[in-house]
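Narrative summary of target 7.
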Amino acid sequence: MDDFEWLGDRVDLLVRGGLVITCVPREDDPIGRIEGGAVAIAGETILAVGREAELAASFDLSRARVLDASGGVVAPGFVDSHTHLIFGGSRVQEYAARMTRSAAEVAAMGIPAGIQASMSMTRRASTEELVQSAAGRVAGMLRHGTTTVEIKSGYGLTTADEIRMLEAARQLGASGPVDVVSTFLGAHDFPPEMPRADYVDLVVAEMIPAVAEAGLATFCDVYCDDGYYTVAQTRRILEAGMRHGLRPKIHVDAYSDIGGAGMAADLPVVSADHLNYTTPEAAARLAAAGVVGVVMPALDFAVRHPRPFDARMLMAAGLPLALATDLCPGCWAESMQFVMQLACRLYRFSPEEALMASTVHGAASLGLADRGTLAPGQLADVQLWGVPTLEDVIYRLGNNAVRAVVKRGRVVEPAGPEQMT
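Modeled conformation, tokenized:
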């Protein structure tokens, strides 16, 4: 029984009757499909995965609740590893205007735009308003199969407001059911009220220690690009974060190549995100350093990026790629299925590569080894699709294939009465 491992004998929930995609590669299948498979769950953990007959021979399933996936697909929950989903207000006017006008024309119209606009609106919003608006977006993500999400700060740009954003993220994670991984991104832009050098000093000397002492973030991130943070400033901030126990991430090569990817490989960072202008040489250095690349097709689509990332080149360099929504005021995308569809059609991902990038590699880009696959000992984060194949998720544009979602062993996106027994 190559797909089966015995860990115990108490089964609380059995997900059965469909095509199980484990995302554990096999020699004969890069995503570990099991026809007629089942997933046995106890508490928050997967006990066993295999063909249903094998599980029935080894476990007493008589008292287990059953989630019927007949005719559908069972897959790991999505891990969305790059979002800015906490923000005040909306930039819908800017987005609509940019359909037919340039950035300069939008500015001449007096429409607030960019990170600075979101900063102003976020500062004016109360923490309660930030939590409430973000909760709606998280609920939409859950409905589309996301069970773990990374959330960055970065629209406050003062110590108090950056902490408020991270506190809002903590509240979202505590209220569940989606797991939240928080990232401090005080170095997202520069506030207009102080010199840039002084703000870098503030991030290093005040913000990072305060965030770390309060235990509000796992990662520290910097937007390293032309017009934003220099390579030297980025290194200084990330190294300060590392001294305070915050693991490094980087926004890099999004709109120019200023040498940030090489520095990111030297540290090394956990993930390097965007990578539109990354060279093959830099991609190879990142890969050799064990970095995960995070790419965001929906962001390229939303901003009509002048240089979409080169996924096949990055993969050829040996860089594992994670997909993420980059949900933010300029890219309001809640569905990882939509991201996978764009990745396959526009960036030449195979459906199998897109799924691995949305689960296993997404988890790796957050330093998480306990999710992203359906395997014994992993968190029981599972989604059921009401389509017969993975390829149907890619094929049915704009469709939400999710029929049910299990998070930490609990059905959180309700199944119909015909599915749950």
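The chain is about 35% helix and 20% strand.
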